[in-house]
Amino acid sequence: MNTRLKLSLSILGTFLFSSGMSVIWLPYKLDDTSGLRLESPSWHHLLGTDKLGRDYFSRLIVGSRIVVIVGITTVIIGALIGVSLGLLAGFARRTRDDTFSAFLDILIAFPTLLLAMLIVAARGASLTSAILAISLGISAVLARLTRLLTKRVLGADYILAARASGTSWFRIVIIHILPNIWTTLIVALSLQFGLAGLAEAGLSYLGLGAPPPNASWGSLLQEAQDTVYTAPIAAIAPGLLLVILVVGVNLFADGLRERFDPTLGGNQ
Question: N or C: at which end does the chain have fewer Cβ atoms within 10 angstroms?
Answer without folding.
Answer: C
